[in-house]
Structures are given as structure tokens and as C-alpha cells.
């Protein structure tokens, strides 16, 4: 998304060049080679400090192409999809990928009356969550009439027939959302190091291994504050924060980015979901011994007409150290309480004493977060 107009950018004193592409970075000469794609001219620009914010690109399936196959990354992608639906009135949609975008697009297609089939290569949808939470989401989708097929790999298409390793599906429109990857081809040729995740390696000040070159946004990997590992979890929040740190430090500042806890959230018509920290599954893969507690409560006082169900799962160590949390239902923005606690290194006992706001339109007298935390404390040694 483009948040500012050209005029707004210029008012901030920024020299802005549209239709220009950097085709080479020369760190030791402090130069970038720029191609004016409109005038078809190439020139060299000099810099004192360089911030690389090349973003990410959609992961595509090479043998899945056609006028009825769509990816969703840019405003143009969205407009093309809307135009296709407007002019063709497709009845059967296939969504490939069971992550956040897959959930939201399955909801959108279902809302406008399309028959929707969601295909996920992994054994379950929503790998960002534990199996029990993901299965709850699957049940909700299927109750709404969406067909969910997991453990199934797309192999190709022939017109309006999509083939998988388990059969065929007739469709009019397919939306592929199997993730994004960092755009790093430019930095690799400049010997700017990338990490194990494929993203650019940066330190806490967003510096790369090349002097005077910084990285920020969806092209970099960052530190996970719970696991201590480098991760690639591209989100708008992280892009904004790392961009601020890189820009400030490139101008002589000394800001530090401490890392992320992987906080994410999405909404459908039937449920919202949110997560922060590590899931049980992720902790097990990292060799971290954890326990978990799951509770079901209401997001508001029970006598409020808009009161609805919320499920809260807390993941923690035996000593009460908070590792992560997952929420489903309505009011899942409470995930920010857990994210704050993780950042502040609060344990379950610390959280149990938080003075959360109470008023019937906003929460029950015992907030679901406190119910979950107190239930988890019973398992602490």
C-alpha cells in the first residue's frame, strides 16, 4: 500500500523518484546504479548511508498460471481480482494456502456467494497456531460451507480444472496465498549477507555486514525474543519499526530494535484469531519444555447483548515463565496483554496481579486473560 502521495512525500523534504529501479549496489564505492525505466536511462547515485528496504514478493507456483489465477500482494493485484469477479461472476473459487490471507480471502469469496474450496499442503491450516486452535478454525469454516482440504498439493491446472495429488477440482477462480519471500537478489550481488531465513542479516541497529548499509522491512530477518533465533515473520508493524530504526541510525542516531514476539491477528465473519510468542508445537521443535492451559470464557459481561465466546490458550514453562498465547473468538486483541508481558519478561504470577479495566460493555469482572493465567498457575511448580 502507498500511504503517502507524491506531494506529501515532497513536503517532507524527500527527493522522490518514481519509475526508477536500482539495478546494482556498490557498497565500497558508496554508489547505486539506477535505471530510469521511463526514459530508459542509467545513472550513478552516490550515498553516505544507504537503507535497503526492497520488501518481499509473493511465492508463486510455477505451473499454475492463467487469467483466472490470482496472487494478492499489491493494490493492482486487488483491483485485477475485483475486475475479474465483476466481469465474469465466477461461482467456484479455490484458495491455495491456509494462512492469514487464505482465511480472509476464503471468507471474502464466501461472503459474495461463491462456492469456496481451501487447499493446504500441510496436514492442517494455520501453522502459526497449535493444532487444537487450528482445528477449531477449520470447523468454523466448514460450518459456513467452505470445503477445507489439508495435506494436499496442487500439481497443475488445465483451463478450469485444478489438479492435486489427491484428485481434481472444478473452479472459475483461484487465489494463491502460500507466503512471501524477501527480495534479496540485489543485495546478494553486493555481498550483503543474508541469513538462514533468506532475509538480510542485520544487527539491533539495522546495520548489515557492509559499512554504511542498513536494512529494514520485509527484506530482513529479525530476532525472536522468546526463542532467541533469527526468524522471517514479515508484518507491517515490524516493517515500520525497523524502518524507523534504520532511518534514524542512518542519519546518525543510536536507536535499537530489540526483536519481535511474532504477534499476529486476523478476522473472519465467524471468528477472530491472534497469537504471540511460541506455540506448543514451535517450543517442542526447539527443545523447550512447556505446558499449556486452554480456557473458554466470554469477552464481555454475560448479560451484554453483544457478549460472545473467547478461547484463550497460554503456553508456559514449569517455573511460570510465559512462552506464548493464542486466542480465538471475539475480543482477541487481548493478545497485546500477553505480548506486553513477554516483552517485559513478566511471569504468570506477575500477570495475575495486573489491574485490567472492567466495565460490562468491555469485559467480564474476571477478564479471560486473568482466568487463563490463574488456571495456568495451578500447573506451575
UniProtKB/TrEMBL annotation:
InterPro entries linked: FAD-bd_OxRdtase, FAD/NAD-bd_sf, FAD/NAD-binding_dom, FAD/NAD-linked_Rdtase_dimer_sf, Pyr_nucl-diS_OxRdtase_dimer
Entry protein name: NADH oxidase
Membership in a protein family: Belongs to the class-III pyridine nucleotide-disulfide oxidoreductase family.
This protein's UniProt keywords: FAD, Flavoprotein, Oxidoreductase, Redox-active center
Domain FAD/NAD(P)-binding, first and last residues per copy: 12-224
Keyword Oxidoreductase set for record: yes
Top-level lineage group: Bacteria
Pfam families the UniProt entry points to: Pyr_redox_2 (PF07992), Pyr_redox_dim (PF02852)
Any coiled-coil regions, as ranges: none
Domain Pyridine nucleotide-disulphide oxidoreductase dimerisation: 272-364
Cofactor(s) in the UniProt record: FAD
GO molecular function, one term: oxidoreductase activity
Amino acid at each position: 500500500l502507498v500511504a503517502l502521495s507524491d506531494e506529501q512525500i515532497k513536503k517532507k523534504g524527500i527527493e522522490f523518484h518514481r519509475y526508477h529501479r536500482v539495478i546494482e549496489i556498490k557498497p565500497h564505492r558508496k554508489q547505486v546504479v539506477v535505471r530510469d525505466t521511463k526514459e530508459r536511462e542509467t545513472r550513478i547515485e552516490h550515498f553516505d548511508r544507504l537503507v535497503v528496504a526492497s520488501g518481499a514478493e509473493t511465492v508463486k507456483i510455477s505451473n499454475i498460471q492463467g487469467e483466472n489465477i490470482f496472487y494478492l500482494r499489491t493494490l493492482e493485484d486487488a483491483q485485477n481480482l475485483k475486475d475479474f469477479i465483476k466481469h465474469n461472476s465466477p461461482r467456484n473459487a479455490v484458495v491455495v494456502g491456509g494462512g492469514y490471507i487464505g482465511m480472509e480471502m476464503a471468507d471474502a469469496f464466501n461472503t459474495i456467494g461463491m462456492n469456496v474450496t481451501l487447499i493446504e499442503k500441510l496436514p492442517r491450516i494455520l501453522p502459526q497456531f497449535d493444532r487444537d486452535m487450528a482445528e477449531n478454525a477449520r470447523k468454523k469454516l466448514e460450518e459456513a460451507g467452505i470445503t477445507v482440504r489439508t495435506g494436499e498439493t496442487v500439481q497443475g491446472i488445465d483451463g478450469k480444472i485444478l489438479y492435486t495429488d489427491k484428485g481434481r477440482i472444478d473452479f472459475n477462480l483461484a487465489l494463491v496465498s502460500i507466503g512471501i519471500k524477501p527480495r534479496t537478489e540485489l543485495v546478494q550481488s553486493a555481498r550483503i549477507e543474508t541469513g538462514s531465513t533468506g532475509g538480510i542479516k542485520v544487527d539491533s541497529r539495522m546495520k548489515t555486514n557492509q559499512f554504511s548499509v542498513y536494512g529494514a522491512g520485509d527484506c530482513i530477518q529479525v530476532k525472536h525474543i522468546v526463542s532467541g533465533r533469527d526468524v522471517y515473520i514479515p508484518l507491517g508493524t515490524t516493517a515500520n519499526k525497523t524502518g524507523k530504526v534504520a532511518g534514524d541510525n542512518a542519519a546518525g542516531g543510536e536507536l535499537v530494535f530489540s526483536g519481535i514476539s511474532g504477534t499476529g491477528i486476523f478476522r473472519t465473519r465467524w471468528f477472530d484469531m491472534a497469537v504471540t510468542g511460541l506455540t506448543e508445537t514451535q517450543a517442542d521443535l526447539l527443545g523447550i519444555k512447556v505446558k499449556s492451559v486452554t480456557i473458554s470464557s466470554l469477552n464481555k459481561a454475560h448479560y451484554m447483548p453483544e457478549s460472545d465466546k473467547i478461547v484463550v490458550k497460554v503456553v508456559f514453562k514449569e517455573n511460570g515463565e510465559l512462552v506464548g498465547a493464542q486466542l480465538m473468538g471475539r475480543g482477541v486483541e487481548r493478545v497485546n496483554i500477553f505480548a506486553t508481558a513477554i516483552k517485559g519478561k513478566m511471569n504468570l504470577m506477575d500477570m495475575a496481579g495486573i489491574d485490567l479495566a472492567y466495565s460490562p460493555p468491555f469485559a467480564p469482572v474476571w477478564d479471560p486473560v486473568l482466568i487463563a493465567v490463574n488456571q495456568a498457575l495451578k500447573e506451575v511448580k
